[in-house]
Amino acid sequence: MPTLLSADYIALVDRGVSTIVASRDAQLRPSVMRAVGARISTNGQRITVFLRRSQSRQLLADIATTGHIAVVFSDPPSHRTVQVKATAAVQRAVLPADEPALQSYLSAMQHAVAQVGYGPQYTAAMLNAPRDDLVAVEFSPEAAFDQTPGPHAGEPLRKERQP
Fold this sequence. Notes:
Largest sheet: 5 strands, antiparallel
Number of helices: 4
Shape: globular
Order of helices and strands: EHEEEEHEEEHHEEE
Structural class: alpha+beta
Strand order of the largest sheet: 3-2-6-7-10
Number of strands: 11
Radius of gyration: 15 Å
């Protein structure tokens, strides 16, 4: 089955990198928020991002109304970045089974952000979220773009055949 994301991009998202989630309302006004966690399926066909409900009210309302979502995954030390978009994102409650993904994301972000000079306490505070304030947003990528600064920034990724 074709996938938008190569194994390298799936690995980038999977290892836990800075994750910014955006949408827009019916009047095309944007909404944006930093995710406090993310997970990707092994084949790249399904992505889940975790948001603080109390800080993401407009974003979550826009996703609920339009289904549209754009997520940027960026590695702080290298600035390697990929953007994925979808038009059928859905929200669900965070489950106990999501806890390992949230913990793994926090650890990975602490490591990445430490490489640019910030200690683990900074990242822990930035990503701190009471579990009852979290919501999961799931989607299947429909479009993907290389957003790494340089000559290929903004170029769409082509679907790849997986073995």
